Amino acid sequence: MIKKVLSVVAVLTAVVCFACCSGDGGKVSNKGIFGELPAVVVDYNQKCIDLLTNLQNSESKEEALKQLQIQSKQLDSAAIVAIKGITDTWADKTFPTEVAEGVPLKILSEFKFNPERSKEDKLSFRAEVEYTADTGIGEGLFRISHARTMFVDKDGNALCPVLNNNFYTLEEDWSKSSKAGSKSELFVTVLFTMWNAEWMSKAAKFYIADSETDFYKQAKDTTENAKKAFEQRIKDLSQQLADKFK
After folding, report:
1. Angle at the Cα of 80 (from 79 to 86), degrees rounded to 5?
2. 16, burial (CB in 10 Å: exposed 0-12, middle 13-18, buried 19+)
3. CA–CA separation, 209 vs 220, rounded Å?
4. Tens digit of pLDDT for each residue in 80-113?
5. Taking each helix axis from N to C terminus, what angle separates 61-87 and 2-15, rounded to the nearest 10 degrees?
6. Continuous H helices in the chain
7. How far, in Å, CA of 170 to CA of 147, rounded?
8. Do residues 96 and 110 touch, judged by C-beta distance below 8 A?
9. Which of 38, 103, 122, 195 could form a disulfide with 226 if both were Cys (CB 3.0 to 4.6 A apart)?
């Protein structure tokens, strides 16, 4: 059935949603803070796209589904092993971290990889920060929810935001959690995905920015547009495969 073909394709492209192409069509580098990881996920997702394309030459729907299930599992397993081989070397690695001007935070410890919170396609990182001013929703106060983490390259150019960004107070007295001098841990989730591979390969540091600034908003919009473009590409490939077996 066509629906079954499409559902299996959806699983293939979503279970381990790594990178096939980058935001602006350039090549990936191994010189960023994540080393070879972006190149590994690029190779993985290109093989997924090649698989979807080649399945259109299958003699039957049944054969296409069989090969899709077999080969996608093989690709997933190989990618997971390769990525773990890289992240296993990050146990003592610190990742450069900077706070944008106007964001009332001071870095106490830069981001480190957090394997306990990580999954195959979503990697978690943790940093410790100190508030340098009172925060809150009152007039003149900075809303800590506006402190959002993104990446910049070696020249300070905006790349893309992280997937999730969460602060957790380290203060025993909750009433002090938004005051100047209070300490928090910051957890972020980084998704290495099909539309951000090149950006991630150029990342020189984590950058905590004000989400209300144009600098952050433009990076967010560019990322979302790249995501939509790639999702349309996947949709088109899936439809071509489904049309083959109408």
Report:
1. 90
2. buried
3. 12
4. 898 999 999 999 999 999 999 999 999 999 999 9
5. 10
6. 2-15, 37-54, 61-87, 197-202, 214-244
7. 17
8. yes
9. 195
